[in-house]
Amino acid sequence: IPIEIDFTRDGFEIPCIISPSENDQYQSYLAIISGAALATIYERYGSRLLEQNVRSFLQFTGKINKGMRKTINEEPHMFLAFNNGIAVTAEEIEIAKSGDGKGYLISKVKDFQIVNGGQTTASIYHTFKKDKADISGVFVQVKLTVVKNRNDFSKIVSRISEYANTQNKVS
Questions:
Q1: Which of 22, 24, 141, 153 is nearest to 91 (CA)?
Q2: Where residue 162 falls among pLDDT bands split at 50, 70, 90?
Q3: Contact by Cβ (8 Å): 147, 25
Q4: At 138, is the secondary structure helix, strand, or coil?
Q5: The pLDDT of residue 58
Q6: d(Cα 31, Cα 38) in Å, to the nearest integer?
Q7: Distance between CA 171 and CA 148 in Å, rounded?
């Protein structure tokens, strides 16, 4: 069952810009989502959000997750600057004009899947729950890709997940 999220109904504003790339395979959006919005949808849907992700939450055992937890607890306002963000795919989305009329907001998403950023999402949620952290200052950048052709959906989503999760180690 596809995950459908109505950010407007849930009281969240997700500002975005629309990629100027025009093609028949996908449309991309760059957005900012609050830690509170991510924690809310993770609490609601759990691992279903990560069905297309190549990894699942690794707890706070690794240095990276411990670093995210420390940032959330000690410098939540720096989370956006320190974190790479998440990659999300969707079947379709609804866009609305922002209240000031100067930009756009993602209001609804159908078949929301986090294909890269499960560690980020789960770290925010678990730090909020376990440490009772104030996540009101936590924000995360989002690259959201809407796959236009349903016949190519699995192939494209799989490649986005694979490529977004393939990184060289920095020594």
A1: 153
A2: confident
A3: yes
A4: coil
A5: 43
A6: 13
A7: 39
Average pLDDT, integer, range 156-171: 68
Q: Which two tokens stand for residue 9?
A: 């109904």
Place of tokens 């959000």: 49
Residues 6+ apart with CB under 8 A from 151: none
- The per-residue pLDDT for range 3-28, each reduced to its tens digit, is 999 999 999 999 999 999 888 889 99
> Can you tell me the distance from the alpha carbon of 7 to that of 37, in angstroms, rounded to the nearest whole number?
8
Taking the C-alpha atoms of residue 42 and residue 67, their distance in angstroms, rounded to an integer, is 20
Helix (H, G, I), strand (E, B) or coil at 103: coil
Q: Which token pair is 12?
A: 């969240």
CA dihedral 73, 74, 76, 80 (to 10 degrees): -110
Amino acid letter for position 105: L
Read out DSSP for 13-62? --EEEE-----SSEEEEEEEEEHHHHHHHHHHHGGGGGTT-S----TT-S
The chain-wide mean pLDDT, for the chain, equals: 87
Once rounded to an integer, what is the mean pLDDT over residues 43-54?
A: 81
- DSSP H or E stretch at residue 127: helix 118-130
